Amino acid sequence: MKTICARFFELLGAAADRAQAAAEIKKWGIVNPEIVCRQCQKPGRVRILPLKRKTGISGGKVMGALVTGGVSLLATGLSRKQLVTQAHCDNCNSTWDF
Predict the structure, then answer these.
(1) How far apart are CA 73 and CA 65, in angstroms?
(2) Do 61 and 74 form a contact (C-beta atoms < 8 A)?
(3) pTM of this prediction?
(4) Which of 26, 39, 51, 72 is least buried, going by the fewest C-beta atoms within 10 A?
(5) How far apart are CA 45 and CA 87, in angstroms?
(6) What pLDDT digit, counting tens, does each position of 54-67 carry?
(7) What is the dihedral of CA 38, 43, 84, 96, to 10 degrees?
(8) Please, what is the Cα angle at 53 between 40 and 46, to 5 degrees?
(9) Residue 1: is its pLDDT beyond 60?
(10) Contact 88/69 with Cβ under 8 angstroms?
């Protein structure tokens, strides 16, 4: 039978593992077993996370800036945000967007 002290450290280690797993899910997303890493070609080790990224200059925002004399740039900026999916491989530690 395990001592109380040994059981405490076992539970403490399990809690630390759960906290680390939760931090990785927050940072890189959940593991998708269907995606194959494009770098190392290993299936089942790729995490995906939907993100909004700034991409090029929006034509509509440029026109709005011209019409308002640049005042609209203070509120909106020129960049547009686009929804992308970030993928991260736990095996080779590479990250890419699609």
Answers:
(1) 6
(2) no
(3) 0.57
(4) 26
(5) 10
(6) 766 666 767 777 77
(7) -30
(8) 25
(9) no
(10) no
pLDDT of residue 21: 76
Tokens matching residue 86: 């970030």
Helices (H) and strands (E) in the chain, counts: 3, 4
Residue 86 vs residues 22, 43, 50: alpha-carbon distances, Å: 17, 16, 6
Listed in sequence order, the DSSP H helices in 29-88 are 59-68, 71-76
Residue 30 pLDDT > 80 = yes
Amino acid, single-letter form, for residue 17: D
Which residues are bridge partners to 80 per DSSP? 55
User: Tokens 């450290």 — which residue?
Assistant: 9
Q: Identify the CA nearest to 29 among candidates 9, 57, 49, 54.
A: 49
Indicate whether 33 pLDDT > 80.
Answer: yes
Asked if residue 46 lies in contact with residue 87, where contact means CB atoms within 8 angstroms, the answer is yes
